[in-house]
Design brief:
alpha/beta, Rossmann fold
Length: about 260
């Protein structure tokens, strides 16, 4: 019997690595991918030391069709590909009037085109029953004027999830999306300088205090989300427990977006 394989993109990041660690409990092989080779290898070593699953890495830019093809060739060599988590993503705050076309294009290249290319390659080779989980964002529903490029790219990810759900449900492939809420990740930390530049009152406020204030103002449950919260929801969507769920979007955000 073939080993079951799940692919996790963006696995060198805090969210992607937490997802990879969680789904390693449920699959025989976890293929982690990112463009950060050294960080990716550290993830392999950390998860491999505490998991029954075989954890392997493959460096890949998900916006490059040739690299995506090579990634799936590797995946097919190690087992039956039954799970895909599209967690690779980039972003950052920028006002609409200052937003450059190349910034817009790069965010869509990774967040949207990358999700499409990976999902397209997946449905060509997946062994049913199979599942795609796309990591979107509450930014897809927030209408934030400093996240126009990021929010639009993540809204497109949700619609891609719908398209694959409708197109491949009869072939035993499910497709769902998750909208994470506020998580203290590198992407968020990299946005703090923008906030300080546009709000002088934050000049002497620590990064952690700024984050805590935003959470307090926006999250009904009063706490930020942890990568493990998203990882648990991802594991559910990948599993047979969700065998009759497809084309859905789940907000894991403490109530920030009330659907």
């Amino acid at each position: 019997m073939n080993s079951t394989v799940v692919i996790v993109t963006g696995a060198a990041g805090g969210l992607g690595s937490a997802i990879a660690a969680r789904v390693a409990d449920d699959f025989d092989v976890v293929l982690v991918t990112d463009i950060q080779e050294k960080a990716l290898q550290a993830v392999v070593e950390r998860i491999g030391a505490s998991s029954r699953a075989r954890v392997i890495s493959h460096v890949c830019d998900v916006s490059d069709p040739d690299q995506v093809t090579a990634l799936f060739e590797r995946a097919n060599q190690v087992g039956a590909v039954t799970g895909l988590v599209n967690a690779a993503g980039i972003g950052g705050f920028c006002g609409i009037e200052e937003l450059l076309p190349q910034q817009w294009d790069r965010v869509f290249e990774i967040n949207t085109k990358g999700t499409f290319l990976m999902s397209q390659a997946f449905v060509r080779v997946a062994t049913a029953p199979a599942s795609i989980v796309n990591i979107s964002s509450i930014g897809a529903r927030s209408g934030n004027d400093v996240l126009a490029h990021y929010g639009a790219s993540k809204a497109a990810v949700i619609e891609l999830s719908h398209s694959f759900a409708r197109g491949y449900g009869r072939k035993g492939i499910r497709s769902n999306a998750i909208m994470p809420g506020f998580i203290y990740t590198d992407m968020w930390r990299n946005s703090v300088p923008f906030m300080r530049e546009h709000n002088p009152a934050l000049a002497d406020v620590t990064d952690e205090q700024i984050f805590a204030g935003i959470v307090d103002q926006n999250v009904p449950m009063g706490r930020p989300q942890e990568p493990e919260d998203i990882a648990e929801a991802t594991a559910f969507f990948l599993s047979e427990r969700a065998k009759n769920i497809t084309g859905q979007t789940l907000a894991v955000d403490g109530g920030t977006v009330l659907t």
